[in-house]
Amino acid sequence: MKELRTRAISGILYVALLIIALKWQLALIGLFYAFGIICMVEFNKLIGLKHVAPYIVFTVLYSFFGFWSVLYDNKDGFVETIQILHVITIFVLLLLIKDLFSEKTIPLFHTKRFILTTFYLSSGFIFLVLIGNFDHEFTPIYVLGSFILIWINDTFAYLIGKNFGKQKLFPSVSPKKTVEGFLGGLFFACVASYFIFNFSGSLSFNAWLFLAIIISVFGTLGDLIESKFKRQAQVKDSGAMMPGHGGLLDRLDSIIFASPIIYLFLIVVDYVS
User: Is 138:72 a contact under the CB 8 Å cutoff?
Assistant: First the structure.
């Protein structure tokens, strides 16, 4: 009971902090930077990287994409630069998906560790900020809606998997995850997309529905990939930042992995509309 209370309190504080930050763009940028540094510390421990360079690279990239370009609306060359970052990031994510399905362990040679901290972790937070500033306007509903869909998916995947799950989804990486849980999380995320559409007044229902599917699928992949990193490091949690939950990376792994795909989808929606 005490553990459940601790888990609930830390979870509520985490959600409240995010919702409050969504009211001011500068606060959101600052919060995601702090989250990024904490997750970088946890991730570097998982992959055995002891170097200051990832923190410098993250700070430089985040300052340019998340701070300078957003707050000062410096558009000269920005679109082209973000396209380059976007393409490289998605390529690295595809390599991680390949490693998840085709490798017993994720290869972690020295160069790849720096590639992952840059184009997996750093990029994930950069695209979260860019989602909140899509089309050069502060659009916190895109960020909040994405987080809500992640929370709904994770909650119902856990509840349905625990009570009705029989077929294992990926037993070699995450023995507790089930196919039934995944489908349940996907279904309720799709249901939640209807209410987000009605509440937000932004995007169409079809767009939010496709976002729910994207977030459920790629969020689950992100969770499985982080689970594989933890299994290789022989740890249960990425850290102890959130009592009852584990590390902050354990809570953000899904949205970090999904954010570049969410941003890509928003570009497609904006283009076709």
Answer: no
**162-182 core/surface letters (b: 16 or more CB in 10 A; e: else):** eeebeeebbeebbeebbebbb
Burial call 239-260: b when 16+ CB within 10 Å, e when fewer: bebbeebbbbbbbbbbbbbbbb
Evaluate if residue 244 carries a pLDDT over 70: no
3-state helix, strand, coil in the chain (%, to 5): 80, 5, 20
- Radius of gyration in angstroms for the set of CA atoms belonging to the chain, rounded to a whole number: 18
| Amino acid at site 179 | V
Q: What does the alpha-carbon distance between residue 138 and residue 203 come to, in Å, rounded to a whole number?
A: 15
User: Where residue 94 falls among pLDDT bands split at 50, 70, 90?
Assistant: very high
Question: Which residues fall within 8 angstroms of residue 221, CB to CB, at 6 or more apart?
Answer: 97, 100, 257
Asked whether the beta carbons of 273 and 267 are under 8 A apart, the reply is no
Q: What is the DSSP letter of 167?
A: S
